[in-house]
Design a protein that fits this description.
- This protein is an all-alpha fold.
- 88% of the residues lie in helices and 0% in strands.
- It is built from two helices and no strands.
- It has helices spanning 14-109, 111-136.
- It starts with 13 loop residues before the first helix and ends with a helix.
- The relative contact order is 0.03.
- The model has no long low-confidence stretch (mean pLDDT 89).
Length: 139
């Protein structure tokens, strides 16, 4: 049989043209389905990324809020500590001032007793230092 007379091998025959058109239509349909599938996957990926970005944004905001709260608590504790130290220093100054005033009044009230107490304290200190120095000497 002559290839130009056989309709299946003759590219210009109507059957061959229809077969090619059907093949192209089938291929175009498959390409369209593939494109739709790719678009669906891309849309799903975009949605997943948006959800993840939202979750990350929420977690970041929560962490920042927690950090700010913790920093505020630390700052409050530091201020309370400073205030307590300031109060303790003021109390110590006041106590020292009262002790100085009391000592001054006692010395003025009985100067001889004050001199004897100071002499006794000095003698006790000298004896203590002499004893420590003697104890350190090698024997």
């Amino acid at each position: 049989m002559n290839p130009t007379t056989n309709p299946s091998t003759n590219p210009s025959s109507p059957e061959s043209a229809r077969a090619m058109t059907d093949g192209i239509d089938h291929l175009a349909s498959r390409v369209d389905r593939s494109l739709q599938h790719v678009q669906q996957l891309a849309g799903d990926a975009v949605q997943t990324l948006a959800n993840q970005a939202g979750a990350i944004r929420d977690e970041t905001a929560s962490a920042m809020s927690h950090a700010a709260h913790t920093a505020q608590k630390a700052q409050d504790m530091a201020h309370r500590g400073i205030d307590k130290a300031r109060d303790a220093v003021a109390h110590a100054r006041h106590s020292a001032s009262e002790l100085r005033d009391q000592t001054s009044r006692r010395v003025q009230a009985d100067p001889m007793k004050a001199v004897l107490i100071a002499a006794a304290a000095g003698a006790a200190t000298a004896l203590l230092l002499q004893w420590v120095a003697h104890a350190r000497q090698p024997r």
